[in-house]
Design goal:
The chain is mainly beta and 179 residues long. It has 2 helices and 16 strands. It has one domain: Cathepsin D, subunit A, domain 1 (Beta Barrel). The longest helix has 6 residues.
Length: 179
């Protein structure tokens, strides 16, 4: 099991006349250049939202790439990628960059296990923002990546928790890194 009854993320949107509470599933992610054999050692974790309304593999802002120490122009594609979400059903063409995503799972005193993903065709990214709102400007893990991940995800709306299992414990995407 990767996450066992982890708390769902909750926040209140106070930008409207009537405040509204939202819930989401967020997981810690390290993002690196593609083809690395282990996750970056001293990178701060970002929290990515699992968004079943986003049909692509992964989305972030240029700010998230730069925060991880990645140059958006390196490993990027010459053409833009058509992008859709539940918020914008029309296609928007955005740049994409090859990356590797690392989700830390089991941690012990001696080692940490990471689930490694190579989103295809890479992470699609939007233009940088001067100021990031952590609730509205969040990076997303979309259905394309989740559907092909070999994960089982259980949402408990009574307890406001989620659990995630990797169905194949011998998956080549499960990497163990000594501490």
């Amino acid at each position: 099991m990767l996450f066992d009854q982890a708390a769902m993320h909750s926040w209140t949107d106070r930008t409207r006349a009537a405040s509204r509470e939202y819930w989401s599933v967020r997981v810690p992610v390290l993002i690196s250049d593609p083809f690395l054999k282990s996750p970056p050692a001293r990178q701060r974790r970002q929290f990515w939202t699992c968004d079943i309304g986003y049909t692509g593999a992964a989305y972030c802002l240029e700010n998230h790439l730069r925060e991880a120490g990645l140059d958006p122009a390196v490993w990027s594609f010459e053409r833009t990628v058509a992008n859709r979400s539940s918020l914008r059903p029309d296609k928007v063409h955005l740049p994409a960059r090859q990356v590797r995503l690392w989700i830390p799972c089991d941690t012990s005193d001696k080692q940490t296990r990471y689930l490694m993903f190579d989103p295809h065709p890479g992470v699609v990214f939007g233009a940088p923002r001067k100021v990031l709102d952590p609730e509205f400007d969040r990076p997303l893990i979309g259905m394309k990546l989740l559907a092909n991940s070999g994960l089982k995800i259980e949402l408990d709306f009574v307890a406001k928790t989620f659990s995630i299992w990797l169905m194949d414990e011998h998956s080549p995407n499960l990497i163990t890194v000594p501490k």
